[in-house]
Every structure is written in structure tokens, then in C-alpha cells.
Amino acid sequence: MSSIDFNQVAQQFTTFYYEKFDSDRTQLGNLYVSFFLYFLFILLKILTTGKRDQSMLTFESSQLQGARDIVEKLVSLPFQKVQHRVSTLDAQPASPNGDILVLVTGELLIDEETNPQRYSQCFHLLPDGNSFYVFNDIFRLNYS
Amino acid sequence: MSSIDFNQVAQQFTTFYYEKFDSDRTQLGNLYVSFFLYFLFILLKILTTGKRDQSMLTFESSQLQGARDIVEKLVSLPFQKVQHRVSTLDAQPASPNGDILVLVTGELLIDEETNPQRYSQCFHLLPDGNSFYVFNDIFRLNYS
């Protein structure tokens, strides 16, 4: 993992994530697929040690825990069309294991609205073999 | 660590951080003090394995690595007075070790300006005995 360029990963991930989000967000489940594996892993731990699934998405004031609820929430968002425009993207390595922290700020256009809304989104990406998956995701609209 | 309320930690940390930042930011070094220990640890690793200090602050377009540069940057910011107003604060557990991820959005007033500027800031807090310290910090102003 030491040869990974975290800025490049963050850039590629963010581009891919918003392209999928804006074109067909039913496919976003693939990016969270490891949540299912993690969930199974945690389920085994629940049976043996009592620990809970701590994976989370915060979307505005909604906090969702566990793979199934996260994917359902993203797919069920109440709009037909959405377009993300990234203004800033900053990444930092977040652990010696190869975790990456990403802060995105930008604008989004929903359905037929012409005034974009500003948003901030923080991703915590974990390495998974030669790839990465979304472990933490916090999204907030920025109201003036 | 399992009995820690991550929302409460995030709230207390953020309140304390901005109070210090707005009143006397020379004291912020204390919150990053463990960076020095981490730096010494990494220095040992540099000597033995060639790894670098990966602790980082991103402040607008500046990326700073290592304890000394981070503290110097915060102390040298070119304004006399600053006031942070938090609009949203969301936290998530970021690892089984007790890491906490915090996304803050808000407004800040600098010196004698009357129009607040919007900002987003992402903190990655690591447990350190019974306390926490700032491991990652990404700050961005949100321009319209």
C-alpha cells in the first residue's frame, strides 16, 4: 500500500462516486459492497463478543448504521435528477494501514432547480485488497 | 473505550477547539501535542524502516506535515480576531479502536468584517489514554 498516491485515489474515487450518483445511484451499492462483508464479519463478532455494526452514513440529520440501511437511503432520496459540481477536494492519509480521509465541498443542482445548493461531504475510505470502499460518509447541505 | 459517547466527545472537542482558536490560538498546540510524540515515533521508524511522518493539516490550499509545521501554521494565520459559529456538527465512529470522524460546517467572522464566511472542517480524532487528540484536520472556506 505504500506506493498508493492518496490524492490520486481520492480524486478518482470522488469523480466515480458523483458520476454514479448523478447518472444512476442504484449502482452506488457496489461502492458500499464491502459493508455487507463487514456486516457479516461484525455479525459473527456479535454472536461471539456482542459488538455492533458501527459502519455509518450521516445524510443531513439522518444517521444510518449498517450496509442495508445505507444503500436503501441513497437509492430512496426524493429527487429524479441531480448534478454534483466539486469546488474543492482535499485528501489526507488517515492511518498507517492506507485509510484515506477526503473532504469535498461543492454545489449540487436538484431536478429542475436553477439555483445550486452548496454542500460538504467527508469520506473515510478503507483499503480492500487493491481497491478501496466507503467506510464513513457524512453529507451536509450548507445553508446561508 | 466502548463506553465513550462519540457524539458527546465530538461536541466537547469542537466547543473547546473553537473557544481556544477564537480566544488564544497559541494554546492550540496542546491539542496537537501528541503529534510530537507521534513525530518522535515516526522518526524512529524513519531511522529503522524509512517511513515518513504522515500526520497532516490541510488549511485551504496549504498542506502541512508534521507537528512543528502544523502548530506554526495555526499560530501564524494573518488575522487578529476570529469568531467561529458552528451550524452543523456530525460525528461517526471511524474504527474499532475508538477513532472519531467529525464534520463541522459553520461561519466565521474575521477581524472587523461584518459578513461571515462559510467554512467546512473535518477532524479525525484519535484516542490517547482517557483523552483524544487531533490526528487529521482539513479546513476549507466555502465560496459561492
Structure notes:
The structure is a homodimer of 144-residue chains. The first copy, chain A, has 144 residues and is an alpha+beta fold. Chain A contains three helices and six strands; from the N terminus they run ααββαββββ. The longest helix of chain A is centred in the first third of the chain and has 18 residues, at 6-23. The model of chain A is unreliable at 33-52 (pLDDT under 50). The A-B interface holds A 2, 51, 54, 56, 58, 63, 87-88, 90, 92-96, 101, 103, 105, 118, 120, 122, 124, 135-136, 138, 140, 142-144 and B 51, 54, 56, 58, 63, 87-88, 90, 92-96, 101, 103, 105, 118, 120, 122, 124, 135-136, 138, 140, 142-144.
Features:
homodimer, alpha+beta, Nuclear Transport Factor 2, Chain: A, six-stranded mixed beta sheet, 3 helices
The arrangement of helices and strands of chain A along the chain is HHEEHEEEE
The overall pLDDT average of chain A reads 75
The poorly predicted ranges of chain A are 33-52
Q: Helical percent range of chain A? A: 25-40%
Query: In total, how many beta strands of chain A?
Result: 6
Largest interface: A-B, 28 and 27 residues
- By DSSP (H or I, 4+ residues per run), the number of helices of chain A equals 3
| CATH class type of chain A | Alpha Beta
Shape of chain A: globular
- Assembly state: homodimer
**Termini gap of chain A:** 41 Å
Could you give the order of strands across the largest sheet of chain A? 2-1-6-5-4-3
Main location (chains A, B): cytoplasm
Keywords (chains A, B): Cytoplasm, Membrane, Nucleus, Protein transport, Transmembrane, Transmembrane helix, Transport
Protein name (chains A, B): NTF2-related export protein
GO cellular component, one term (chains A, B): cytoplasm
